[in-house]
Amino acid sequence: xxxxxxxxxxxxxxxxxxxxxxxxxxxxxxxxxxxxxxxxxxxxxxxxxxxxxxxxxxxxxxxxxxxxxxxxxxxxxxxxxxxxxxxxxxxxxxxxxxxxxxxxxxxxxxxxxxxxxxxxxxxxxxxxxxxxxxxxxxxxxxxxxxxxxxxxxxxxxxxxxxxxxxxxxxxxxxxxxxxxxxxxxxxxxxxxxxxxxxxxxxxxxxx
Length: 207
Prior knowledge:
- Helix content is 82%, strand content 0%.
- It starts with a helix and ends with a helix.
- The protein is mostly helical.
């Protein structure tokens, strides 16, 4: 299997990449600010689940299809952009929260988890990134490439969860303070809406 030195280098690189501003961590930040720390963690779980799909796509060669097919890439990115615009509209028209944690626990966790999955899986650039990034740390001489890709994917997911968990904690704390003010809630909702629109446009024009 892969040497421990290589695995450590991969994990360190993954941490740095997860910290770099991008659609996923901005998405976690916005959801945490809107709905609190637990919301961010459930979105993070969804994103991590989506990364499992991208890892499998690379391991089994499906990402090569997206890379080769302009139509497949376009369909995925426009679905993702449309979903982000839907979230932007929801955030823009959101009312003032009553602060009922019971309602959040009963109604929102599954939705937030699914949001994370959809957000991640409908971004074809993640599969293309994995297709370019993971092979740099795999070696056919060290055994099954499929197993190595899944190992590297698991490490990347762990690094992402650590970083995004910290983002959830920090952004959620700020959101909790804002939640006591109706005006601040409105500002946070409008800001999140703008973030989602920006992410949608960025995804839609990507090549």
